[in-house]
Write a structure and sequence with these properties.
65% helix, seven-stranded mixed sheet, flat, single chain, 7 strands, alpha/beta, 17 helices
Length: 533
């Protein structure tokens, strides 16, 4: 907000008036104090006491005013004398290194040795990539586009020595070479053909995509307009977050006008995915020209446009491409570790919920309540919450756990899920139980079922860093209630309930009680009849 000169004048006038008022009040207070002291001790002694009071005030106020006075007297720093501010943003290499170090904490929590070792090996590979210094170019293309010819032509045309194939396997070959004027080395990776039929072709395509995930720069080779499958591959490769060049091969088979039209078409199809200058024509292996009376003439490859574009990209953006690739791989490795840890935690929390489900059911069988209105404190108990929180690395007090359990219990009651659960399970159990057992069993089984809903809701809460999300606690509880009402989930729960609650209870009852109906009950009746015979 800008202050005008007129406003500044009014502010000065008001400030002056306030200062005069304060000074007047201070003088009046001093005169009043001097008058009172004069009446008590006399005029001479009163002036001495006022002087002592003023000196004490100066002693008390001076330490507070001294820093301000020194700051005003200190000369302003020159522009060059100020200490440089620490960089707020670290480099991509530093960010990748920090990401790799943070993965160690995640790996230490994963118990599955096989999965953990797999992540450790991938971490070591990414760390080696961080230190290697080579730029990796991966070439993609179908078997008919001339990908192998392009690789061979590049190796023959590239400036600098070409090393032998590194890491040759059934799926790819890697060559190390040098580009004039580039400080780093370049690795050119030839992947197997994509979009090949059969299981073997699908497996080779998966491995080729893995190579793409480790590349700094991608080349996709086509020999005409993009087919639907090639367009899908293009989108998929672009979605990796890597720099991508589209190379149009076999330009020697088309006329100049036809080639220009095709390049224009490809650039329009790739708009928003690939820059127009990154769509490049080549002739990796031109057709030979018949010569009368002699051997056919083999024209040299036409790669000048591609080599110039590669050189420009690698010189201008090579460092950034390398750093982005390493950082991207580090983040993906970190995400993989977090997914494994999340699955492990989900499994551990699920076992805790299952245990407390049947503990709550057993308590209600022993000491049945008149109803399930207080289920929030009976089934969803604080100890279950504390143990689930511990699985997710959260230290939760007993009081906080109790509050969390009560809030979920109130939500269950408020949404009508307690009555809904009783009705749903009563209908499922009525046909399989005698009337004498029905009330207690329905109460216990319903308590276990609602404990499962509450426990799954707690898992979501801790998975989301102790947050219920945008929809709040009602939406989370409702989602898990709906999931557990599905026929398949309800059937699995009832099978577990018969095994954990109903069958043990029936064995404790009078053997003359009729067995519950169903295949298992009929089998038990036949066994008992055979024993009596």
């Amino acid at each position: 907000m800008t202050i005008t000169p007129r406003q500044r004048l009014w502010i000065l006038l008001l400030g002056s008036v306030l200062v005069l008022i304060v000074l007047g009040m201070a003088m009046q207070a001093i005169n009043s104090l001097r008058w009172n002291l004069s009446l008590m001790v006399g005029p001479g002694l009163a002036d001495l006491l006022l002087l002592l009071i003023a000196a004490a005030g100066v002693v008390l106020v001076a330490p507070m005013l001294l820093p301000w006075i020194q700051a005003l007297r200190r000369p302003p720093p020159s522009p060059g004398s100020a200490d440089p501010a620490p960089p707020l943003v670290c480099t991509r290499h530093e960010a990748a290194e920090r990401q790799l170090q943070a993965i160690d904490q995640t790996l230490a929590r994963i118990r599955d040795e096989v999965q953990r070792q797999g992540l450790v090996q991938e971490q070591e590979r990414v760390r080696a990539e961080l230190e290697r210094g080579d730029l990796v170019i991966v070439v993609f293309g179908t078997g008919s586009t001339g990908k192998t010819s392009l690789i061979q032509a590049l190796l023959g045309e590239w400036v600098g020595p070409v090393g032998a194939a590194m890491g040759s396997t059934d799926v790819s070959r890697s060559y190390r070479l040098r580009l004039r004027g580039l400080d780093r080395g370049v690795r050119l990776v030839d992947t197997p053909g994509i979009l090949e039929a059969g299981a073997a072709g699908l497996q080779r395509e998966v491995l080729a995509r893995e190579q793409a995930g480790r590349a700094d720069l991608l080349l996709l080779l086509v020999d005409g307009d993009l087919r639907a499958s090639e367009h899908e591959i293009l989108r998929s490769l672009a979605g990796l977050g890597k720099r991508l060049l589209l190379v149009l091969n076999k330009c020697d088979l088309r006329g100049e006008h036809e080639e220009k039209q095709l390049l224009t078409l490809l650039r329009s199809r790739c708009r928003g995915v690939i820059a127009p200058e990154d769509v490049i024509p080549v002739a990796a292996s031109p057709q030979s020209v018949p010569m009368p009376g002699g051997r056919p003439l083999q024209p040299p490859p036409e790669l000048d446009a591609l080599i110039r574009r590669l050189a420009t990209v690698l010189h201008q953006d090579g460092e950034e491409l390398l750093a982005d690739n390493i950082l991207l791989q580090s983040r993906r490795l970190s995400e993989a570790g977090r997914r494994l840890l999340a699955a492990q935690r989900r499994s551990d929390a699920g076992r805790i919920v299952d245990r407390y489900m049947w503990i709550g059911a057993g308590v209600l069988l022993v000491t049945p309540l008149p109803g399930l209105d207080l289920l929030g404190t009976a089934a969803v108990n604080a100890q279950m919450v504390v143990e689930i929180a511990r699985v997710y690395g959260v230290s939760l007090s007993r009081e906080s756990a109790q509050e969390l359990a009560v809030s979920v219990g109130r939500t269950l009651a408020g949404l009508g899920m307690i009555k809904g659960g009783v009705s749903l399970l009563s209908a499922a159990l009525t046909l399989n139980l005698p009337a004498l057992m029905l009330s207690r069993v329905v109460q216990a089984v319903t308590a276990a079922w609602l404990t499962r809903i509450a426990g799954w809701s707690f898992q979501r809460y801790f998975e989301q860093d102790q947050s219920w999300g945008d929809g709040g606690i009602q939406q989370v509880v409702q989602e898990h209630y709906d999931l557990n009402r599905r026929d398949s989930a309800l059937q699995r729960f009832l099978e577990a309930a018969f095994s954990r609650v109903i069958d043990p209870l029936q064995r404790q009852k009078d053997p003359q009680l009729p067995p519950r109906r169903g295949p298992r009950g009929e089998a038990a009746a036949r066994d008992r009849a055979d024993q009596e015979r």
